[in-house]
Structure formats: structure tokens, C-alpha cells
Amino acid sequence: MCAIQAGNRGLRVRVLEQGPKVGLKILVSGGGRCNFTNLFADPRQQFLSENPHFCISAMNRFDPSDFIAMVEAADIPYHEKKLGQLFCDRSARDIVTMLLDRCAAASVDIQVRERVAEISPEDDGGFSVTTDKTTYTTSKVVVASGGLSMPKIASDLAFRTADSLDMTVVPLRPALVPLTWNSEDKPRYDVLSGISVDVEAACNGESFRENLLFTHRGLSGPAILQISSFWRDGDSVLINLLPDVDAADWLLAQRQSKPQQKLATVLKTRLVNRLVEVMTDHWFEDVKIGSLSPGAVAELGARLNAWEFKPGGSEGYRTAEVTLGGINTDEVSSKTFEVKKVPGLFVIGEALDVTGWLGGYNFQWAWASGWCCAQHL
Ligand SMILES: Cc1cc2nc3c(=O)[nH]c(=O)nc-3n(C[C@H](O)[C@H](O)[C@H](O)COP(=O)(O)OP(=O)(O)OC[C@H]3O[C@@H](n4cnc5c(N)ncnc54)[C@H](O)[C@@H]3O)c2cc1C
User: Fold this and answer.
1) Are 212 and 219 in contact, with CB atoms under 8 Å apart?
2) Which fold has domain 2-173+322-374?
3) I need a surface site. Which of 23, 59, 133, 241 has the fewest CB within 10 A?
4) Residue to substitute in 96, 145, 176 for testing ligand 1 pocket (most ligand atoms within 8 angstroms of CB)
5) Which residues of the chain are in CATH 2.40.30.10 domains?
């Protein structure tokens, strides 16, 4: 996006890409259909950063409608899946093809299989960019090398460059990532692998109502990916397995009206059978609901509304969609994306300490920061 806009402004642009092709993350995103933006993207809502105001200016200057206009101009069919999330009807390849066509029209020179090893400021104010093939000299460099997720195609170029130039990096951690079982829970819940449940997951003051997926490794699905960005080692995630009801009230009413019914029979009217079976093995004895005290019934209800899941960890960068943290935005202009103390050096996209929720927000940030930066090169 940045190369296209800079090329359109008449600048000579060279893209250096270490992989065999550009846009690999676009190709694998959104299950191959690329959730390329979100209709409801709001820079004050769905972005995490130590400096939450940083992303507002760029997100307002290049908003979802600007990217949608590009998609429509290229006749790419798309649809809203849910919650404002826009996906390609056919394939993520449509987005990459559109960007490549625009690069070609803007005379952008793209070099693939060329890995940047080092970016160093020169005494005359320009930069030397050393790759595994050669060294270039240039007056301006834009670092758009992303975060650490998908280790096979990621690199730490942005963070190494920041270190070498005395810039600070907000601590990095995998986000939008499945959370794993602790050693006690794994044997209990392993059998639930493959089951999906509508839940509300909460941690550190945030909550998300979405699907949760049990896996052999732990918990995944959109509710967990979203909350993983707020979870820290040692924290518990509270999972509301019955988000539409006050489970204690409901169970007390069942105790009153159907005292002869077994607990599992009652619970199976609202929860997946296999989940209830695991609960009868590990959470409670499957007795007649009328034989329990009101206090015991209320306690079980409270647990259904707030199951405390203590993850052993996360699946890490291998499966994380994004990297939380990044180059400290205090050191970068929110208007131009130029590094304040290194004129001529720019940083955009995920390499910065701006991380979106799941749902097309991270691409919208990448497009917006790239577009805005290009106006000031
Ligand atoms: C599996 C997966 C699915 C995702 N799905 C979505 C989605 O549907 N919607 C959404 O909004 N976000 C999604 N994301 C997140 C989104 O892909 C990223 O936030 C976004 O691509 C970041 O854009 P970027 O340009 O900053 O970095 P990237 O897209 O990561 O691009 C950085 C590029 O720089 C290259 N590079 C890195 N280091 C070097 C080097 N030293 N020399 C040369 N080249 C280098 C890399 O090869 C890469 O091509 C997904 C991420 C993953 C991993």
C-alpha cells in the first residue's frame, strides 16, 4: 500500500521482500479469503497500544471505505461475514493481485527473495540497506517488516533496527493466539476436542461474546483469540458457558419445578451433551437436583456463568495471528510515520506498537499506516 501510493506520487520505489512472493500473510489470512477490513473499525475501540491515541489520525485519514473503494474498483467480489468483517468471495489472492497490479501501474520495483540484514544511517543523512545480495543507498527507508507471528515468514528486522538506533520497543508477545491447557486440565478436557460453544470470555476488564473451540492443546476459537490479547501469564480467563441466562436462578427454578430430574439431564437442555458428561466426571456428582441444597445449586450456577480457566500458556508465535507490542509509538510521528530521532526512517504496520482485535482491524491498520506514510515520503 505504501509503495503504491509513493509510486503514484512519482517517487522511485523499491520493495525488498525476503520471501518468494509478496503478501504471503494476505494469502493465508481469513482462512484463505482475507478478512481485509471491518466496516465498524474505530481507532478508539479495537486497537491496543501503550499510546492508544497514536492510531487515530491515520485511521481517520484512510478508513475502511477507502480500502473498499479500491476493492470495488478492481471488481473483487466480497461479503460481510459477521460483525462488519469483510471477506473476499473467491480468494485472498484477489487482494494480492489488486495490490500487485497497482504496484505495476505505479512503476514499483519489487525484489523478492532478498532479505534485509541491516539498515544503517549514513553520515550524509541517507541510509545504507544491506541485504543478502547487495547494499543499496537511499535517502528514505520504510520499515514494513511486520511482527513475529508465522515464524517461517517473519523476521525481527524492525526490532533489531530499533535496538541499533536506540529506539525503544514495547515488549513483544504473541496475541490472537490459542491458549493451552495447564497440566491438570489437559486430561480432564482433552476429550472435548472439536466441540464449539457460544460463550463470553473475560479477562482483565475485557470480554468477548463469540465461539470457543475445545482443542487437544487447549482452547481456541474467536472468543479465546480475542481475549488472548488481554491475557497475561498467570491470569485466569473467566468463561461464561451460559451467557444468556443467570445459571443460578435457572437451576434454582429447575430444582423447584423438577426436583426428581438428574442434574445432567437438566444441564443437557442448555449445554452440549459431551460437555455435560465431562462436568459430571469432574465438576459435580450426577444426583437428583432436588437432593442438593439451594446453596450448592447456586454455586454450580455461578461456575457455569464464570468457569475459571487457568491457561498453562499460549501456542506462541507459531499460531498467533499478530504480535502485541512493537516499536514504541512515542518515538514515531502519527502523521508521517517518520522516526522522530532518525529523519528519513519510517515504520508502518504491525511492527509498531498498535495491535487490532480479530476481525479485519489489523489489515485496516496496515493499509492506513502505509497510505498515510506514503503521503510524506
Ligand atoms: C494466519 C494469519 C491470519 C491472519 N488473518 C488476518 C485477517 O483475516 N484480517 C486481518 O486484519 N489480519 C489478519 N492477520 C494479521 C495480518 O496479517 C497482519 O497484521 C498484517 O499482515 C501486518 O501487515 P504488515 O505489512 O505490517 O506486515 P506483514 O504482512 O507481516 O508483512 C511483512 C513482510 O515483510 C517481509 N519481511 C520481514 N522481514 C524481512 C526482511 N528482513 N527482509 C525482507 N523482507 C522481510 C515478510 O516476509 C513479509 O512479507 C493474520 C495473520 C496471520 C498470521
Assistant:
1) yes
2) FAD/NAD(P)-binding domain (3.50.50)
3) 133
4) 145
5) 179-314
Q: Which of 64, 132, 35 is nearest to 359 (CA)?
A: 35
Nearest to 292 by CA among 254, 342, 349: 254
CA of 264 to the centre of ligand 1 (A): 46
Considering the domain delimited by 179-314, tell me its CATH architecture: Beta Barrel (2.40)
Q: Exposed, middle or buried by CB within 10 Å (0-12, 13-18, 19+), for 25? A: buried
Count of CB atoms within 10 A of residue 270's CB? 15
* Per-residue confidence (pLDDT) for residue 348, from 0 to 100: 98
How does pLDDT run across 89-124, given as a tens digit for each residue? 999 999 999 999 999 999 999 999 999 999 999 998
DSSP 300: H
The H-assigned helical ranges of 106-180 are 157-164
Predicted confidence (pLDDT) per residue in 21-56, tens digit: 999 999 999 999 999 999 999 999 999 999 999 999
Confidence of residue 190 (pLDDT cuts 50, 70, 90): very high
CATH 3.50.50.60 domain residues, the chain: 2-173+322-374
pTM of the predicted model as reported, rounded to 2 decimal places: 0.96
Residues having CB closer than 6 A to ligand 1 are 16-19, 24-25, 28-30, 34-35, 115-116, 144-146, 149-150, 153, 155, 157, 321-322, 349-351, 360-363, 366
The SS3 assignment for 293 reads: coil
Ligand 1 centroid – CA 362 distance (Å): 9
Percent of the chain topping pLDDT 90: 99
pLDDT at 125: 87
pLDDT category, 152, cuts 50, 70, 90? confident
Nearest to 239 by CA among 276, 278, 213, 262: 213
In degrees to the nearest 10, what's the CA dihedral of 9, 15, 21, 26?
A: -60
Query: Could you tell me which of 33, 23, 32 has the C-alpha nearest to residue 153?
Result: 23
